[in-house]
Amino acid sequence: MKILVLNSGSSSLKYQLIDSETEEVLAKGLAERIGVKGGGGRIIHQVAGNGKVEVNIDMANHDQAMNHVFELLTDPEKGALGSTRDISAVGHRVVHGGENFVNPTIVDDEVLKKIDEVSHLAPLHNPPNLEGIRACMRLMPGVPQVAVFDTAFHSTMPEHAYIYALPYKYYTDYGIRRYGFHGTSHKYVTGQALQILEKLGIAAENSRIITVHLGNGCSMAAVVGGKVVDTSMGMTPAEGLMMGTRSGDLDPAILLYLARELQATPDEIDEIINKKSGLLGVSGVSSDMRDVEAAAESGNRLAELALSIFCYRIKKYIGAYTAAMGGLDAIVFTGGIGENSANIRARVCTNLSFLGIEMDEEKNRTASGTADISSASSCVRILVIPTNEERMIARETAQVVASLERTLK
Protein backbone atom coordinates (compact mmCIF):
# COMPACT_ATOMS: atom_id res chain seq x y z
CA MET A 1 0.00 0.00 0.00
CA LYS A 2 1.37 3.41 -0.98
CA ILE A 3 0.49 6.15 1.50
CA LEU A 4 0.91 9.86 0.81
CA VAL A 5 1.63 11.75 4.04
CA LEU A 6 0.88 15.48 4.05
CA ASN A 7 1.67 18.28 6.47
CA SER A 8 -0.07 21.42 5.23
CA GLY A 9 1.01 24.82 6.53
CA SER A 10 -0.42 28.22 5.74
CA SER A 11 1.99 28.73 2.83
CA SER A 12 3.72 25.37 2.61
CA LEU A 13 3.07 21.71 1.95
CA LYS A 14 5.42 18.93 3.08
CA TYR A 15 4.86 15.47 1.63
CA GLN A 16 6.24 11.96 1.72
CA LEU A 17 5.18 8.95 -0.32
CA ILE A 18 5.69 5.85 1.82
CA ASP A 19 5.36 2.14 1.09
CA SER A 20 3.40 0.99 4.13
CA GLU A 21 4.71 -2.57 3.96
CA THR A 22 8.43 -1.74 3.91
CA GLU A 23 8.08 1.79 5.38
CA GLU A 24 10.47 2.93 2.65
CA VAL A 25 10.20 6.60 1.63
CA LEU A 26 9.66 6.49 -2.13
CA ALA A 27 9.57 10.25 -2.62
CA LYS A 28 9.39 13.41 -0.54
CA GLY A 29 9.27 17.13 -1.01
CA LEU A 30 8.30 20.60 0.07
CA ALA A 31 6.13 23.17 -1.70
CA GLU A 32 6.86 26.70 -0.45
CA ARG A 33 5.28 30.17 -0.69
CA ILE A 34 1.81 28.92 -1.56
CA GLY A 35 -0.54 31.87 -2.04
CA VAL A 36 2.17 34.41 -1.24
CA LYS A 37 1.82 37.72 -3.03
CA GLY A 38 4.70 38.39 -5.36
CA GLY A 39 5.14 34.72 -6.17
CA GLY A 40 8.50 33.11 -5.68
CA GLY A 41 6.94 29.69 -5.14
CA ARG A 42 8.99 26.55 -5.52
CA ILE A 43 8.81 22.81 -4.98
CA ILE A 44 11.83 20.82 -3.84
CA HIS A 45 11.18 17.21 -4.86
CA GLN A 46 13.28 14.12 -4.20
CA VAL A 47 12.82 10.52 -5.29
CA ALA A 48 14.69 7.66 -3.62
CA GLY A 49 17.67 6.76 -5.75
CA ASN A 50 16.87 9.40 -8.35
CA GLY A 51 18.23 12.66 -6.95
CA LYS A 52 16.61 15.98 -6.15
CA VAL A 53 14.93 18.54 -8.39
CA GLU A 54 13.82 22.10 -7.71
CA VAL A 55 10.89 23.56 -9.61
CA ASN A 56 10.20 27.29 -9.46
CA ILE A 57 6.47 27.78 -9.90
CA ASP A 58 3.82 30.04 -8.39
CA MET A 59 0.96 28.37 -6.54
CA ALA A 60 -2.14 30.41 -5.72
CA ASN A 61 -3.59 27.85 -3.31
CA HIS A 62 -3.22 24.32 -1.95
CA ASP A 63 -5.18 22.86 -4.87
CA GLN A 64 -2.59 24.16 -7.31
CA ALA A 65 0.24 23.02 -5.07
CA MET A 66 -1.20 19.49 -4.89
CA ASN A 67 -1.66 19.40 -8.66
CA HIS A 68 2.02 20.22 -9.15
CA VAL A 69 3.03 17.66 -6.51
CA PHE A 70 1.01 14.99 -8.35
CA GLU A 71 2.67 15.97 -11.63
CA LEU A 72 6.09 15.48 -10.03
CA LEU A 73 5.12 12.19 -8.36
CA THR A 74 3.94 10.77 -11.71
CA ASP A 75 6.60 12.36 -13.94
CA PRO A 76 8.22 9.65 -16.14
CA GLU A 77 11.72 10.79 -15.15
CA LYS A 78 11.32 12.49 -11.75
CA GLY A 79 8.40 10.53 -10.35
CA ALA A 80 7.78 7.49 -8.18
CA LEU A 81 4.29 6.55 -9.41
CA GLY A 82 2.75 5.46 -12.68
CA SER A 83 -0.48 7.21 -11.72
CA THR A 84 -2.06 8.91 -8.72
CA ARG A 85 -4.42 5.91 -8.70
CA ASP A 86 -1.48 4.01 -7.16
CA ILE A 87 -1.97 6.04 -3.96
CA SER A 88 -4.10 3.94 -1.60
CA ALA A 89 -4.72 6.64 1.01
CA VAL A 90 -3.56 10.04 2.23
CA GLY A 91 -2.56 10.62 5.86
CA HIS A 92 -2.87 14.23 7.02
CA ARG A 93 -1.20 15.76 10.05
CA VAL A 94 -3.80 17.78 11.96
CA VAL A 95 -2.51 19.69 14.96
CA HIS A 96 -5.62 19.96 17.13
CA GLY A 97 -8.40 17.42 17.53
CA GLY A 98 -9.85 18.87 20.73
CA GLU A 99 -11.77 16.23 22.65
CA ASN A 100 -13.57 15.03 19.53
CA PHE A 101 -10.73 12.98 18.13
CA VAL A 102 -8.59 10.57 20.15
CA ASN A 103 -7.75 8.25 17.24
CA PRO A 104 -6.82 8.62 13.55
CA THR A 105 -10.05 9.19 11.65
CA ILE A 106 -11.36 8.75 8.11
CA VAL A 107 -12.32 12.23 6.91
CA ASP A 108 -15.82 13.04 5.72
CA ASP A 109 -17.86 16.26 5.75
CA GLU A 110 -18.84 15.77 9.40
CA VAL A 111 -15.20 15.27 10.44
CA LEU A 112 -14.20 18.39 8.49
CA LYS A 113 -16.85 20.33 10.37
CA LYS A 114 -15.65 19.10 13.77
CA ILE A 115 -12.01 19.88 12.96
CA ASP A 116 -13.08 23.36 11.92
CA GLU A 117 -15.00 23.79 15.19
CA VAL A 118 -11.78 23.43 17.22
CA SER A 119 -9.70 25.60 14.88
CA HIS A 120 -9.90 28.46 17.39
CA LEU A 121 -7.66 26.34 19.63
CA ALA A 122 -4.97 26.17 16.92
CA PRO A 123 -5.70 29.10 14.58
CA LEU A 124 -2.27 29.00 12.91
CA HIS A 125 -2.37 25.27 12.20
CA ASN A 126 -5.83 23.74 11.80
CA PRO A 127 -7.08 26.01 8.97
CA PRO A 128 -4.13 25.21 6.66
CA ASN A 129 -4.35 21.53 7.71
CA LEU A 130 -7.96 21.64 6.49
CA GLU A 131 -6.91 23.31 3.23
CA GLY A 132 -4.64 20.37 2.45
CA ILE A 133 -7.37 17.84 3.26
CA ARG A 134 -9.96 19.63 1.13
CA ALA A 135 -7.53 19.91 -1.78
CA CYS A 136 -6.92 16.15 -1.72
CA MET A 137 -10.63 15.37 -1.38
CA ARG A 138 -11.33 17.45 -4.48
CA LEU A 139 -8.41 16.11 -6.50
CA MET A 140 -8.62 12.47 -5.34
CA PRO A 141 -12.30 11.56 -5.06
CA GLY A 142 -12.82 8.12 -3.56
CA VAL A 143 -9.33 7.89 -2.04
CA PRO A 144 -9.48 7.58 1.77
CA GLN A 145 -8.28 10.69 3.57
CA VAL A 146 -7.15 10.04 7.16
CA ALA A 147 -6.61 12.74 9.79
CA VAL A 148 -3.91 11.97 12.37
CA PHE A 149 -4.00 14.37 15.33
CA ASP A 150 -1.07 15.78 17.30
CA THR A 151 -3.26 15.85 20.40
CA ALA A 152 -4.54 12.26 20.18
CA PHE A 153 -1.69 10.44 21.98
CA HIS A 154 -2.19 12.68 25.00
CA SER A 155 -5.91 11.89 25.31
CA THR A 156 -5.18 9.24 27.98
CA MET A 157 -4.23 11.89 30.55
CA PRO A 158 -6.32 11.70 33.74
CA GLU A 159 -8.62 14.60 34.54
CA HIS A 160 -6.42 15.86 37.37
CA ALA A 161 -3.57 16.30 34.87
CA TYR A 162 -5.47 18.16 32.17
CA ILE A 163 -7.84 20.42 34.13
CA TYR A 164 -6.50 23.86 35.03
CA ALA A 165 -7.26 25.41 38.43
CA LEU A 166 -9.73 27.87 36.91
CA PRO A 167 -13.51 27.95 37.35
CA TYR A 168 -14.61 24.55 36.03
CA LYS A 169 -17.20 26.14 33.74
CA TYR A 170 -14.35 27.53 31.58
CA TYR A 171 -13.55 23.92 30.71
CA THR A 172 -17.15 22.95 30.01
CA ASP A 173 -18.06 26.18 28.19
CA TYR A 174 -14.85 26.99 26.33
CA GLY A 175 -12.78 23.81 26.25
CA ILE A 176 -9.97 25.29 28.34
CA ARG A 177 -7.78 22.35 29.40
CA ARG A 178 -4.39 20.77 28.74
CA TYR A 179 -4.33 19.01 25.35
CA GLY A 180 -0.63 18.52 24.59
CA PHE A 181 1.09 18.43 21.22
CA HIS A 182 3.88 16.64 19.32
CA GLY A 183 1.78 13.53 20.02
CA THR A 184 2.81 11.71 16.85
CA SER A 185 6.49 12.13 17.74
CA HIS A 186 5.99 11.10 21.37
CA LYS A 187 4.01 8.04 20.25
CA TYR A 188 6.62 6.96 17.72
CA VAL A 189 9.61 7.15 20.08
CA THR A 190 7.60 5.58 22.90
CA GLY A 191 6.99 2.55 20.68
CA GLN A 192 10.69 2.31 19.86
CA ALA A 193 11.65 2.67 23.53
CA LEU A 194 9.22 -0.05 24.60
CA GLN A 195 10.90 -2.50 22.24
CA ILE A 196 14.30 -1.68 23.76
CA LEU A 197 13.00 -2.01 27.33
CA GLU A 198 11.30 -5.34 26.62
CA LYS A 199 14.66 -6.75 25.53
CA LEU A 200 15.98 -5.65 28.92
CA GLY A 201 13.20 -7.50 30.71
CA ILE A 202 10.90 -4.53 31.39
CA ALA A 203 7.38 -5.36 30.24
CA ALA A 204 5.56 -2.65 28.28
CA GLU A 205 2.62 -2.59 30.69
CA ASN A 206 4.94 -1.88 33.63
CA SER A 207 7.15 0.70 31.91
CA ARG A 208 7.64 4.31 32.98
CA ILE A 209 9.13 6.53 30.29
CA ILE A 210 9.79 10.25 29.89
CA THR A 211 9.93 11.33 26.25
CA VAL A 212 11.75 14.62 25.58
CA HIS A 213 11.05 16.18 22.17
CA LEU A 214 13.46 19.07 21.66
CA GLY A 215 13.30 21.09 18.46
CA ASN A 216 12.25 24.65 17.72
CA GLY A 217 9.18 23.58 19.67
CA CYS A 218 9.85 21.52 22.79
CA SER A 219 7.66 19.23 24.88
CA MET A 220 7.87 16.32 27.29
CA ALA A 221 5.50 13.49 28.15
CA ALA A 222 5.22 11.09 31.07
CA VAL A 223 4.20 7.70 29.71
CA VAL A 224 3.12 4.77 31.91
CA GLY A 225 2.48 1.43 30.24
CA GLY A 226 2.55 3.12 26.84
CA LYS A 227 -0.09 5.70 27.81
CA VAL A 228 0.45 9.39 28.50
CA VAL A 229 -0.32 10.52 32.04
CA ASP A 230 0.99 14.08 31.68
CA THR A 231 2.60 16.36 29.12
CA SER A 232 4.24 19.77 29.24
CA MET A 233 2.42 21.66 26.49
CA GLY A 234 -1.04 22.81 27.48
CA MET A 235 -4.11 24.25 25.82
CA THR A 236 -1.65 25.72 23.30
CA PRO A 237 1.98 24.88 22.44
CA ALA A 238 3.16 27.94 24.42
CA GLU A 239 3.18 26.19 27.82
CA GLY A 240 5.95 24.08 29.30
CA LEU A 241 9.61 24.07 28.31
CA MET A 242 11.61 27.01 27.00
CA MET A 243 11.64 26.80 23.19
CA GLY A 244 13.16 28.51 20.17
CA THR A 245 10.85 31.53 20.31
CA ARG A 246 8.22 30.50 22.91
CA SER A 247 8.49 31.41 26.57
CA GLY A 248 7.13 28.19 28.03
CA ASP A 249 5.90 28.28 31.64
CA LEU A 250 5.13 31.82 32.77
CA ASP A 251 3.37 33.57 35.65
CA PRO A 252 0.07 34.52 33.95
CA ALA A 253 0.01 37.86 35.78
CA ILE A 254 3.11 38.88 33.79
CA LEU A 255 0.94 39.02 30.67
CA LEU A 256 -1.49 41.37 32.38
CA TYR A 257 1.39 43.51 33.62
CA LEU A 258 2.92 43.72 30.14
CA ALA A 259 -0.42 44.52 28.56
CA ARG A 260 -0.80 47.49 30.89
CA GLU A 261 2.82 48.69 30.79
CA LEU A 262 3.20 48.35 27.01
CA GLN A 263 -0.45 49.19 26.28
CA ALA A 264 -0.30 46.03 24.20
CA THR A 265 -3.16 44.29 22.44
CA PRO A 266 -3.82 40.54 22.87
CA ASP A 267 -2.23 39.95 19.46
CA GLU A 268 0.90 41.83 20.52
CA ILE A 269 1.16 39.83 23.74
CA ASP A 270 0.71 36.65 21.69
CA GLU A 271 3.58 37.79 19.46
CA ILE A 272 5.83 38.31 22.50
CA ILE A 273 5.26 34.91 24.13
CA ASN A 274 5.23 32.85 20.92
CA LYS A 275 7.66 34.58 18.56
CA LYS A 276 9.98 36.85 20.56
CA SER A 277 10.78 34.82 23.65
CA GLY A 278 12.57 31.53 24.40
CA LEU A 279 16.16 31.08 23.22
CA LEU A 280 15.83 34.10 20.94
CA GLY A 281 14.40 36.38 23.60
CA VAL A 282 16.93 35.57 26.33
CA SER A 283 20.09 35.19 24.24
CA GLY A 284 19.36 37.96 21.74
CA VAL A 285 21.33 35.78 19.32
CA SER A 286 19.03 33.31 17.61
CA SER A 287 16.20 30.82 18.02
CA ASP A 288 18.50 28.13 16.61
CA MET A 289 20.18 26.08 19.36
CA ARG A 290 23.33 25.64 17.26
CA ASP A 291 23.83 29.41 17.10
CA VAL A 292 23.13 29.82 20.82
CA GLU A 293 25.57 27.06 21.77
CA ALA A 294 28.27 28.60 19.57
CA ALA A 295 27.69 32.04 21.10
CA ALA A 296 27.85 30.62 24.64
CA GLU A 297 31.09 28.83 23.82
CA SER A 298 32.60 32.11 22.63
CA GLY A 299 31.74 33.80 25.92
CA ASN A 300 28.32 35.37 25.33
CA ARG A 301 26.81 35.58 28.83
CA LEU A 302 23.17 35.79 27.75
CA ALA A 303 23.57 32.83 25.39
CA GLU A 304 24.98 30.82 28.31
CA LEU A 305 22.06 31.98 30.46
CA ALA A 306 19.60 30.83 27.77
CA LEU A 307 21.21 27.37 27.76
CA SER A 308 21.08 27.18 31.54
CA ILE A 309 17.37 28.06 31.62
CA PHE A 310 16.64 25.63 28.79
CA CYS A 311 18.31 22.67 30.52
CA TYR A 312 17.09 23.58 34.01
CA ARG A 313 13.45 23.49 32.84
CA ILE A 314 13.89 20.03 31.34
CA LYS A 315 15.61 18.79 34.51
CA LYS A 316 12.70 20.08 36.65
CA TYR A 317 10.16 18.26 34.50
CA ILE A 318 12.17 15.03 34.74
CA GLY A 319 11.98 15.25 38.52
CA ALA A 320 8.28 16.09 38.51
CA TYR A 321 7.35 13.33 36.06
CA THR A 322 9.44 10.73 37.90
CA ALA A 323 7.50 11.58 41.06
CA ALA A 324 4.16 11.54 39.21
CA MET A 325 4.89 8.07 37.75
CA GLY A 326 6.37 6.65 40.96
CA GLY A 327 9.67 5.84 39.29
CA LEU A 328 11.44 5.87 35.94
CA ASP A 329 12.77 3.25 33.52
CA ALA A 330 13.89 5.38 30.56
CA ILE A 331 14.39 8.90 29.28
CA VAL A 332 14.13 9.35 25.52
CA PHE A 333 15.73 12.33 23.76
CA THR A 334 14.37 13.11 20.30
CA GLY A 335 13.81 16.01 17.88
CA GLY A 336 16.51 18.08 16.20
CA ILE A 337 18.15 19.21 19.46
CA GLY A 338 17.49 16.03 21.41
CA GLU A 339 19.01 13.85 18.69
CA ASN A 340 21.99 16.04 17.83
CA SER A 341 23.16 18.05 20.84
CA ALA A 342 25.35 15.96 23.13
CA ASN A 343 25.97 19.13 25.15
CA ILE A 344 22.28 19.65 25.97
CA ARG A 345 21.76 15.97 26.83
CA ALA A 346 24.78 16.04 29.16
CA ARG A 347 23.70 19.25 30.89
CA VAL A 348 20.18 17.91 31.43
CA CYS A 349 21.37 14.62 32.95
CA THR A 350 24.09 16.06 35.19
CA ASN A 351 23.49 15.53 38.94
CA LEU A 352 20.53 13.20 38.45
CA SER A 353 22.26 10.09 39.82
CA PHE A 354 19.95 10.24 42.86
CA LEU A 355 17.19 9.22 40.42
CA GLY A 356 19.34 6.41 39.00
CA ILE A 357 20.20 8.48 35.90
CA GLU A 358 23.88 8.16 34.94
CA MET A 359 25.20 9.00 31.49
CA ASP A 360 28.22 7.52 29.72
CA GLU A 361 30.03 10.62 28.44
CA GLU A 362 31.76 8.82 25.56
CA LYS A 363 28.56 7.13 24.39
CA ASN A 364 26.77 10.46 24.55
CA ARG A 365 29.48 12.26 22.59
CA THR A 366 29.57 9.67 19.80
CA ALA A 367 25.85 8.81 19.68
CA SER A 368 24.40 8.46 16.19
CA GLY A 369 20.94 7.28 15.29
CA THR A 370 19.21 5.16 17.94
CA ALA A 371 21.58 4.82 20.90
CA ASP A 372 21.66 3.90 24.58
CA ILE A 373 23.95 6.46 26.21
CA SER A 374 23.51 5.22 29.80
CA SER A 375 26.49 4.21 31.90
CA ALA A 376 26.84 0.57 32.93
CA SER A 377 25.71 1.46 36.46
CA SER A 378 22.68 3.54 35.45
CA CYS A 379 19.34 2.23 36.71
CA VAL A 380 17.53 4.33 34.10
CA ARG A 381 18.15 3.89 30.39
CA ILE A 382 19.03 7.15 28.63
CA LEU A 383 18.05 6.72 25.00
CA VAL A 384 18.49 8.79 21.86
CA ILE A 385 15.82 7.85 19.32
CA PRO A 386 15.35 9.76 16.05
CA THR A 387 11.70 10.63 15.62
CA ASN A 388 9.78 9.87 12.44
CA GLU A 389 6.36 11.49 12.47
CA GLU A 390 5.72 10.76 8.80
CA ARG A 391 6.31 7.04 9.33
CA MET A 392 3.95 7.11 12.30
CA ILE A 393 1.25 8.88 10.27
CA ALA A 394 1.69 6.35 7.44
CA ARG A 395 1.37 3.43 9.90
CA GLU A 396 -1.78 4.82 11.47
CA THR A 397 -3.29 5.66 8.09
CA ALA A 398 -2.66 2.12 6.81
CA GLN A 399 -4.23 0.66 9.98
CA VAL A 400 -7.35 2.83 9.62
CA VAL A 401 -7.77 1.92 5.95
CA ALA A 402 -7.24 -1.79 6.64
CA SER A 403 -9.85 -1.62 9.41
CA LEU A 404 -12.28 0.13 7.07
CA GLU A 405 -11.76 -2.54 4.40
CA ARG A 406 -12.41 -5.32 6.91
CA THR A 407 -15.62 -3.60 8.00
CA LEU A 408 -16.83 -3.26 4.41
CA LYS A 409 -16.21 -6.97 3.81
What does this structure look like?
This protein is an alpha/beta fold. The chain folds into two domains: 148 residues, Nucleotidyltransferase, domain 5 (2-Layer Sandwich); 202 residues, ATPase, nucleotide binding domain (Nucleotidyltransferase, domain 5, 2-Layer Sandwich). Helices cover 40% and strands 19% of the residues. It is built from 15 helices and 14 strands. The strands form two sheets. Strands 5-4-3-2-1-6-8-7 form an eight-stranded mixed β-sheet, with helices on both faces. It has a six-stranded mixed β-sheet with strand order 11-10-9-12-14-13, sandwiched between helices. A hairpin with a 5-residue loop joins β2 and β3.
State the main characteristics.
Nucleotidyltransferase, domain 5, 409 residues, 6-stranded mixed β-sheet
Strand content: 15-25%
Q: Structural class of the helices, strands and pairings? A: alpha/beta
Please state how the strands of the largest beta sheet are arranged side by side.
5-4-3-2-1-6-8-7
Task: Classify the helix fraction into a percent range.
Answer: 25-40%
Q: Termini distance?
A: 18 Å
Tally of domains: 2
Q: Which H/E pattern describes the elements?
A: EEEEEHEEHHEHHHEEEHHHHHEHHHEEH
Main β-sheet description: 8 strands, mixed
Mean pLDDT, all residues: 95
**Oligomerization status of the protein chains:** single chain
Helix tally equals: 15
The CATH class assignment of the largest domain is Alpha Beta
Our Rg estimate from Cα atoms comes to 22 Å
